[in-house]
Amino acid sequence: MKEISFRTDVLPLKDELFRLALRITLNRADAEDVVQETMLKVWNRRDRWAELESIEAFCLTICRNLALDKLKRADNQNTSLGDEEGGGEEPADRSYAANPEEQAVQRDRVEQVRRLISQLPEKQRTCMQLRDIEGKAYKEIASVLAITEQQVKVNIFRARQTIKEKFQQLEQHGL
To answer: Is residue 1 part of a domain?
Structure first.
């Protein structure tokens, strides 16, 4: 087993943990709290690090569980992700640099997709976050969520289908 160092192996995960916590809590302040609590729990369990197969999966699992606990306590499921990100804009798609109208349409579409993702059930939202945004392998996601790889694939498929269908409805009907 590899010797695990908090500074070189755990601290670099803080941004990834934050993105996961933000996807679950949909609140920037709550996500920051979850990451801080995660770091403390990981540090307090440093005597077990040698037994771990993956410190990253261990950290992600703790982060997910803490975020879900915070979500349950706050009953915070109706908050939109876009509202909590501090108004941060997506970088404009430079292929449309000469056409401000296309840039605005693109920003609106990205915001629509974000809202649709935030409306997904927690497990689908987390699977999609870890796979499509973090680039994690199915096996790693299954380990973090304590489900089978097949369940991960099903959750991701359903999440993508839901996003696709709802996005198409919005595009057709402008709802």
So the answer is: no
